[in-house]
Structures are given as structure tokens and as C-alpha cells.
């Protein structure tokens, strides 16, 4: 077989990439989907919440008449594990411009009983049908050029590279929000990074659900360590992202009573604010 | 009957006020509640979304083992009308610290069929059980003293007083965000006000759900008029509010594609950030 006949060496594409294969759901019955949750999107054994949201978002995109999640909220109930799972969806209301749906991700305990992992409520629309007016006053985050930011692959392991998901993401952190990795957290609840998929697949509305929950916790820059489990995550997808790397800025303003919020903004290469998210997370003070 | 035996003339209290009476739900069966939606909380005939969220929040507080909404998300499906309604709840998961529940508000069409108005997903906890650490970096909004702010009752009707809800709320807008009422909107997506209930009832977690959706739309200050219907509203209640008036600051950063987000912060008299909310709303450009 000649070299010319082998697979092209170019970047992965939307629809033909590891992210697409690992979020693919199989319709078992109307509104019911099977999936094998991949171990490739875990952080220290825990399946990443953004990857899980993308799985649920994909099932809802199939179950509802509109393709794109305009607003999607997930409550994380129990820890998901790699392996078989079922997504059960319900079309709550179907409208002309928006449809609202609900979904549950379930797995099985040792006795084979269903255990609910995540409950989702979402409204879907068609991003391509929106008018192209933009009156935003928001400004893109001030990030150094990508080549002056740092990821797990750079230098003497400044960022924990022990997570499977790290091999699948292109995350380059702003040095100004990397102090925690050097033992000198800034004390500010900020985390900024360039973001993409490691195989070069461009962003789409589903991968934005991953982008908002992929950076290290802002709590690290506030001098805290340990697990920051998400209670609830809401994402607004506002625009179809242009090709090229994304910029993600995450901010925490209120750490109190053992909880914090993380607000994320995602900007595309055309300087459009393509997604806004907020999550409520628990934090163990240390 | 002597004057001494008549009702005390002091302010209304939590549990004995118009807001409490108008959000009271009656349990018909386990998890199912009846309510008569009051016409007193309407804006030009439409029932206020924050009042409706408080009704749903109250039903969930009864249905779940924890009392306070830590994170509550509502998707507004169809327009609610004053009159009879049913709330159906489901306890999704009950944990030690948090419980997750779902609720639907339903009314009836002319043929007596149930029509779903609102679908809610929420996690509840106990605010009084939280540790009292505060490491917030957020600052309270800079608002002039209450007596230098303006409401519907002040002056030559600077704010539309034609809504029933205006009689039940104490809203005093910062003059800096009142330009729209004088035909001179600032162009900035900001709205700030002192907030309370007109009968003097102090705030509690349920009335915070009302506070985040009670100010005029930020779109007014961006020079737009008309209806700004909420698609989705998420509220995080972070702290039990201290007695006294609240300060509410609402900000819009991204108006694009016919949608905008409204972020609200609610601060209490003790300078604690007691609630954070975000809603996605549709806007008709004019």
C-alpha cells in the first residue's frame, strides 16, 4: 500500500474526531440512548463534567427538533464512571424558535439497578437562524499569545499531567493564572487559557460545553487544593464558534460557606463571545 | 372591640405577609400542590417570573428534605395567567447535604387540558448549616442612599406605575440607571436599585428569587423598548439575608443574535452577597 493511500495526516474534523466518537449516542428507542462513557476524558479517575454534558447535549440534539443548546443546565447527582450508560430524554415543549427538553444520564450499580448520575434541563434553538446583530459590551480576555502560554506538556510538568483528559485537550494557561502550579497562587479567583482539542478538531456548540469546564479550578489560584465538585452547571451557547483556538476566562467572585461560583466566558478567533457559563461548586477549605 | 385588640400596625413579617400568602401552596397529594396565582404580581397582565419561581421554590421546599434553594433553574415555557395552577414535584435525589428536585407549574386551557408553564430543576440545602467563612472578592454595588433613589411613587411618574406588582415592591432605582425613563438611556446594560417588599416584610431565601427578576430590563438602558421574555433563569442563593433593604445590581454584557443575558447580584444590609443569578432572555430590537 502506497503512502498516498494512507489516512490523511491533517487535523481531525467536526464529525470525525475522538470527541465526536466518544460522545456518540446510539438510539435504542425513541428518546432513549446508549453510550459507553470513555475513560479518555477522566481527571484522576473521575469523568469530566463538561464531557458528560456534551454527551447529554448530543442526545437532546437528536431528541429535539432544534439542533443547538441555547441554555443547558446540569445537576451532578452522583459520580459517573467510564463504561456503559443510558440517556433518557423527554421533549418538554416544542416551539417554533425554541424547544425545551430534559435528560437523565444513568448507570448501573453492582446489583444492576439504575443509578441517576446527572439531570439536565435545556432549551434548544438554531444558532444559524439568529440575526447577526451584535451589541455586546463585553471585551475578550487579555491573554498572551498562545506560544507564551503553558500546558501540561511544557517545561518541568508545571501542570498535573496525570489525567487522561490532558492528552485530548490543548490547554495553554496564561502565566498570570499559573502561580498555583509553582506554589505561588495569586489569591485571585481567575483562570485564563487558550483551549482546543488536541487532535485539531475545531470547536462547535457541543465542544463549547466541554470548554467551559476544562480549566483547572479557580480555587487553585485562591490557594486552595483538593476536589471542587460541581453541583450545578449552566451554559448559554450564544454563537457558532469560528474555526481556530478558543480563549476561555473563568472568574470566581464569591467563595463563601464552602461553595463558590465559576463564571466562564468563551471567545472565538473572530472575537465573538460564543458561550457564557456559571457553575456552583463545593470547595473543601484547606 | 377595643383598638388594642385590632391588628398591630407594624411591618409585615416573614410568614405573615402578602408575599407569603400569595406564594402559599396547598398539598393535594404527596409532591402535588395547588395554588391560586395572584393577579397582584403581574406586569402589564403577565405574571412576574420571579414570583412564579418563588411559588415553585416553596413547593420544592416542602417536597424535599432540605429547606433552601442553593441553585434553582427555571425554563419558562408558556405565559402564566392569574388563577388556579398545579405544581407537580419530583424528588430526584436526596443526599445528606443537598437534595435535588424537579417541579412543573401547570395550568389549564379552555378544554381543561393541562398546559405546562414552567419546568424547574433545583438543588436544595440548609443555609444555616453552612460554615461562616467568607473569602469573597466581590464588592457591593455603589448605590446612592435609598432616599436619593427613585421609584414609581416618586415625582412625575418616572417609572411606569401601571403594573400591579409595583404596589407590592419597594424598588428605588439608582438615578444613574434611570435615564431610560427620561428618554435618555445610558447605553450601558446596567440597572441598580434598592429592593424590598412594600409591606416591610424582610427578605428570606424565597423572596430573593423574586428580587433577582424585579427590576426593569437592562435592555431599557440600552435604548430598547418592548418585552424581554425570560427563556431561562438560574438563581444561586448563597446566604440567608439579614433584615433590611437589599441592593440589587443587574448587568448585561452580551446582547447579540436577539438574545441577552442578565446577571444579578443581591446584597444584604450586612454587605453579604446573598444571591447571584443569570437569565437568558429574548429581545426584540427596536
Automatic annotation (TrEMBL), chains A, B:
Residues annotated as domain Acyl-CoA thioesterase-like C-terminal: 161-283
Signal sequence annotation: none
Xref: InterPro entries: ACOT8-like_C, Acyl-CoA_hotdog, HotDog_dom_sf, Sec_Metab_Biosynth-Assoc, TesB_ACOT8-like_N
Region spans: Disordered: 1-21
Superkingdom of origin: Bacteria
Domain spans labelled Acyl-CoA thioesterase-like N-terminal HotDog: 39-123
TM region(s), chain numbering: none
Pfam families (UniProt xref): 4HBT_3, 4HBT_3C
Record protein name field: Thioesterase family protein
Organism of origin: Streptomyces fumanus
